[in-house]
Amino acid sequence: MTTASIAIRPLTYADLPRVLAIERRSFPTAWSLSMFVLELSKPSGVCLAAVDGAELAGYLICARYAEAFHLMNVAVDPARRRQGIASTLLDAMFERVGADASVTLEARVSNTGAIKLYERYGFRTVGTRRRYYTDTGEDAIIMWRAIGAPWEAA
Predict the structure, then answer these.
(1) Least CB-packed of 40, 42, 62, 143 within 10 Å?
(2) Which sequence positions are flagged as catalytic?
(3) What pLDDT score does 66 carry?
(4) What pTM did the predictor assign?
């Protein structure tokens, strides 16, 4: 499958019922409705929807902080995974924040698929948050993507 039919647009409050459905199927501990509302209310954030016609296929939430962006949540409907939708969302995020923006994220150490995806975008592991995920006690790896950072090849 290709992502030719996928369009990226701003995520809206009207999308939230479908976002919550994907969220609950994607993560052991889902974000609450209020968490999504809070992020959508921040004008400096980047909140994107990947849509195929009227169907929400995935979403991305990225918050803006003083010196960097924090990629907080990326999810693709389980039935639509492995079709390039997460990559399309990341491409669109970098179009909006700038190709040279510093971006950080946390990922479950067991989420090797996501970690490999982030590494393809230049993210590097710089640390660990012990027992970060309270649902399982699993560690999170901290990843950064910063142009010109010490871990970037010259």
Answers:
(1) 42
(2) 106, 118
(3) 87
(4) 0.90
